[in-house]
Specification:
The longest helix has 15 residues. The strands form two sheets. A 16-stranded antiparallel barrel has the order 3-4-5-6-7-8-9-10-11-12-13-14-15-16-17-18. Helix 2 runs parallel beside helix 3. The chain is mostly beta strands. It folds into two domains: about 60 residues, no CATH class; about 350 residues, Porin, CATH 2.40.160.
Amino acid sequence: MNGVSILILAAGLASAQVDPDLERRITELEKKIRLLEPGFAAAANRDLALRVAALEAKISELLPPAAPEPSPQPARAPEVLSLQPLSSGSARTPEPEPELRLPVAGYMDFHFNKERTQPGQLDFHRFVLLFGHSFSDRIKFWSELEVEHAFVEGGEEKGEVELEQAYLDFLIHPAFNLRAGMLLTPIGIINERHEPPSFNGVERPFVETVIIPTTWFDTGFGATGEFGNGFRYRAYLMSGLDASEFDAEEGLRNGRQKGFQSSFRNPAKAARLEYSGLRRLTLGLSGYSGSAGFNLNTVNPRVDIFSFDGRYRAGRVDFRGLFARSYIRRARELNFELQRDRGNLPNIARQLQGYYVEPAIHVLPRRFRNDAVLFARYEKFNTQHRMPEGFLPLPEFNRSAWVIGATFKPNADIAIKFDYIFNRNASSVIRPRDSVNLGIGWWF
């Protein structure tokens, strides 16, 4: 639902006769507004007319020049449970207490994946619940608890439970707020916006899996804010990556500490600047730098990551693209130390690079309540883009992929997905398999 239609509906509600369905509809409008402005809070007064007035005021604020894309986490604020304080029963009326808001949300997806010549597999990939709490208008909590692959068993590679987010926001000023706890690293597009209906394709992009190790989270603290004119930022000090877990095929991905007794000896710095001041355009610039040798004896390599991304809509056509490059300083010494520890040479690169471009078209007319999207994504990613002196790149890790598919949304919060992936690499010996994928994802 766009801003104009929300405004029209809100105006109609303001003059409508109160009925049992009215409050539910207003609550749904408030949820839609929070998709555009996560900081928006419903009026503490439960009077419906005041709530409609608050909605109209916020929509008027968001419309010129256009409503920006929703800020990252929390990606959406769900329905609000209001707990009103009880009367003390005394003659003196007690001072009103702040409204207690207990938001609950979640997202889930399950997939069917089949590589060519291999049997297909069904996997309930993710079951995620998000919980929040407002201690006051200026202190808020948000969390994300995920179960991957449905079944967790100690000592077996069945699945895992992850606490991907758990942080406090201290709201001081629109331009400067504090955040601390378990944080998503603000790099790229998908890492902070990884709910299934928010992207095309059954699986997340390859570039934002091995070049940027999505989903990437760890303990830390920092600042967030908006400068006005469409600029917003996040800047954190976080636990760094673990270079002892890097490898040639998946790059940095296995080096995520994930908040489990994470080393903070040399905290990493991560920051993202976004611009959404032009209608339907969002640009992002991300950077990361941190030492990664706390588990090593003789070398302390530094990891630097740079990425640039953009999203744009022109009529019924969407465009999305990202470029990322990762640097591993002292990669030569890192390879030799890991060889001494493991007995084999891991052949880790000093530079990893990838990019993707994705056009998509909405094929159903706007008057339809459903949405259908056809898309094509080209990805080029090389986890051995530049090698240390004396090391040769392995051509099977110089990869590319065409991902062609469709997304159907019977509801804005439900995505039924299909894609076919044409996988390629530079090797004449080790050839990757194409794959077909089906999936259903939803959030609430």
